[in-house]
């Protein structure tokens, strides 16, 4: 198990342990917190399947290139882990734990199984990745679809980009308040993201100073 797999496995196991320990109402509260995001993810899935499934199947899956999943250590946010754990049956979480224990011998992502990604709700970085070639081919024929894609990318930020209160930040905070920490809590430990949060706070402060 390399250090990437270790971080992933420890975080997943921590999330799983906590979710197993909380009361049913607390869990329902978390489920309701992520529900709007899941609707957004369904919309992205529908868009990708309508416009990109043909080209991705031909170019990548049939040729076994799977370019999107060829990186060994894909970035997963702590929020990705929590959301996926909330919606996945226990058997799927066990599958994730099992793949993380195996040595990664290829040049593909550890989570890429024989039938695709083993996450139920895959990491947001993966969901929003389209290779240059696919974008060029699809958007050349359907320029309006490019506008829809831009709008989906803008909406993604409403859950993940901490220039305002966002779901991914709140999920990290919830686990931190329960006494947990993980290197995947990027919204609380990445210098770049922390500086975005600081700037957002300063902007709010200066706006409220102007009003008062
Ligand atoms: S997590 Fe899933 S979608 Fe993302 S790179 Fe790995 S196999 Fe592909």
Describe the structure.
The protein is mainly α and 212 residues long. β1 (112-113) and β2 (116-117) form a beta hairpin. It has one domain (3-211). The protein starts with a helix and ends with a helix. The protein contains 11 helices and 2 strands; from the N terminus they run αααααββαααααα. The mean pLDDT is 91. Strands 1-2 form a two-stranded antiparallel ribbon. It is globular. The site of iron/sulfur cluster has 11 residues, from loops. Iron/sulfur cluster binds at residues 68-69, 74, 109, 111-112, 117, 119, 122-123, 126.
Layout of helices and strands, plus pairs?
Elements: H1 3-21, H2 24-51, H3 53-61, H4 78-87, H5 90-101, E1 112-113, E2 116-117, H6 124-127, H7 132-141, H8 143-160, H9 167-177, H10 186-189, H11 191-211
Antiparallel strand pairs: 1-2
Helix pairs in contact: 1-4, 1-5, 2-8, 4-9, 7-8
The protein binds iron/sulfur cluster.
Brief sketch in words of this structure:
This protein is mostly helical. The chain has helices spanning 3-21, 24-51, 53-61, 78-87, 90-101, 124-127, 132-141, 143-160, 167-177, 186-189, 191-211; strands at 112-113, 116-117. Strands 1-2 form a two-stranded antiparallel sheet.
Q: What brief labels describe this structure?
A:
single chain, 212 residues, mainly alpha, two-stranded antiparallel ribbon, 11 helices, 2 strands
